[in-house]
Amino acid sequence: MDSAVEAPAASAALTISGCEKAALLLLMMGETHAAKVLRYVSPEDVERIGTAMAGIKRVDNQKATQVVDEFHDAIESENSLAVGVQSYVRKLFTSALGEQKGGALANRVLGEEESDEMNSLRWVEPGTLADMIKDEHPQMIAITLAHIEQEQASKVLKLLPEDKQDDIVMRIATMKTIPDAAMGQLQKVLKKKLAVSTTLKNRNVDGAAAAAGIINGLGADTEARILENVAKSDEELSARIQELMFVFSNLINISDKGIQLLLREVSADLLPLALKGAGEEVKEKILGNMSKRAREMLVDDMESKGPVKISEVEAAQKEILNIARTLAESGQIDLGTGGDDYV
Q1: The CATH fold of domain 115-244
Q2: Which of 61, 75, 272, 328 could staple 302 via S-S, CB 3.0–4.6 A?
Q3: Residues in domain Flagellar motor switch protein FliG C-terminal (predicted)?
Q4: How is the chain split into domains, by residue range?
């Protein structure tokens, strides 16, 4: 009798979304500690977590225990030496070699440290940011959008004149290394607009990946127009952007009905291989749209496979993505925001 009562509760606990887990944990932390944590979270994620918080009318004890236990397990599994290592190494280099030499070495070893300007831009509303940069040279706009969160960049790009959008995306897509002169000019613009004054240095950028992320957030018509215009100048670049635009983690954006349609087209041996390298959200999305028996069989298949080559996982994921694209092209599923699907 007891086990029959406990089973549904345990099942419900497993369905807690990432945002709800974060919301529950922050609510239990209290206002002061929660505010400190949220300083390190992107504005978009703060909004998502805030929405989840607002939707919690009461904190269910079992859910709360589940979240705390998961958090505790995650902390226990972390190597304590990994906490703050980058900050420690950067300080060590600058203390030993001075700001200039130590900072340069740290950048080579650890990668560029995010500048105050770029951190400041994260908190600027898209409409305000669009007004700030709309009259700047397209190259300055492109550099700015390439360095902020892609979701925010998409919103800003939508607000810019249509005749500028194609040029800006093309400039982003062809970026590799941004020279000091261009970063210096951007520094002057941001210093004037935001009243911040740290020095910006040249940075390496994967332009095609940045462009793909930004275009992902645009409407279908704008997306098609921009990709068509990019293809006129560089067909290979357009194809690379399209390939980068839809990755395996994007499956979480497909509606449940769409996922169910997709699963019907995916062979049984392909799915466990593809999910071996997938994130937890994607796994939950897939497993949540399968029958109990099919779910158990899939989990068993994944566990029985043992270690697999990354190349095999990537090949399986690519094949599933191709199936998803085919279904989208025929109008059966929506890849974008989990909208309505058609049968």
Answers
A1: Annexin V; domain 1 (1.10.220)
A2: 272
A3: 229-335
A4: 2-75, 115-244, 248-329
Span 248-329: which CATH code? Answer: 1.10.220.30
User: What's the distance, CA 326 to chain centroid?
Assistant: 24
Q: Is the pLDDT of residue 255 over 80?
A: yes
Is the pTM higher than 0.70? The answer reads no
Task: Round to whole Å and give the CA distance between 201 and 205.
Answer: 12
Neighbouring CB atoms inside 10 A of 113's CB total 14
302: closest CA among 282, 327, 332, 322?
282
| 3-class DSSP assignment, residue 177 | strand
Q: What is the chain's Cα-based Rg?
A: 23
Helix (H) or strand (E) segment spanning residue 339:
none
- CA separation, residue 243 to residues 16, 220, 231, 237 (Å): 31, 16, 13, 10
Would you call 35 exposed, middle or buried from its count of C-beta atoms within 10 A (0-12, 13-18, 19+)? exposed
Q: What stretches of 267-309 show up as alpha helix (H) in DSSP?
A: 270-275, 280-287, 292-305
For residue 110, which amino acid is it? Answer: L
Per-position DSSP letters for 237-263, written without gaps between them = HHHHHHHHHS-GGGGGGS-HHHHHHHH
DSSP state of 30: -
Q: Residue 204's beta-bridge partner residues?
A: 177
Q: What is the DSSP letter of 219?
A: -
Cα dihedral 180, 148, 310, 275, rounded to 10, equals: 180
Q: How many CB atoms lie within 10 A of CB 228?
A: 11
Residue carrying the six token digits 């994130």: 279
Pair 115, 179: CB distance under 8 Å: no
